[in-house]
């Protein structure tokens, strides 16, 4: 495979998934430059994560549970959450619940895309191995982003439950990401029997969250009024 072919195959899944969730916004699509900015922040996040994870492995060891839930999922999801919360959560463009999903997915897929590029070149990957990564790690990061963004949206637009959903927006992605990694680390020969049901569940749950976030948008009333006027 040529360098360009490998690079394209490594980048394409993340970009395609981001486009899919971006276009799922029914009422007011986000400014594309903000989405690209968050995607690029996710790309840059890979470098400090690599350094911190190496240090944590030296300090905490490589026990599968500790690695999965703390060193991998805990660190990665916390830093993604921190980026979305500090940069975009209070921004004026975050004006409906679904926006949380768009921005959290953008950060998550930026992170997953550079990871995928590194994997492709460092492991001399074939198309089949990149397809496997598109269906599992890249897709998984997108699902964790949907979960995070859904609860950030709920936190912002249901003030009486803000603290609860802020906690959920961090805790749930860490749990599902940790479980994802733990299965891959501990079930070497029969992981597919656990991973396929997990991914089906995460996709179904994520699509429900997408529809739920859109259905609670305060902009849907304005959209309906505009349709009636037309």
From TrEMBL:
Q: What does this protein do?
A: Involved in the degradation of specific anti-sigma factors.
Lineage top rank: taxon: Bacteria
Q: What is its main location?
A: membrane
Which residues span the membrane?
6-23, 35-53, 65-88, 100-122, 134-153, 165-184, 190-208
- Name by which UniProt lists this protein: Protease PrsW
Q: Name one GO biological process term.
A: proteolysis
Kind of enzyme, top EC level? hydrolase
Q: Which InterPro entries match?
A: Peptidase_PrsW_arch/bac, PrsW
**Which keywords, in A-to-Z order, does the entry hold?**
Cell membrane, Hydrolase, Membrane, Metalloprotease, Protease, Transmembrane, Transmembrane helix
Which protein family is named in the record?
A: Belongs to the protease PrsW family.
Where does this polypeptide localize?
A: Cell membrane
Molecular functions per Gene Ontology: metallopeptidase activity
Q: What is its EC number?
A: 3.4.-.-
Specify one Pfam family: PrsW-protease
Gene that encodes it? prsW
Q: Name one GO cellular component term.
A: plasma membrane
Q: What is the lineage of its organism?
A: Bacteria, Bacillati, Bacillota, Bacilli, Bacillales
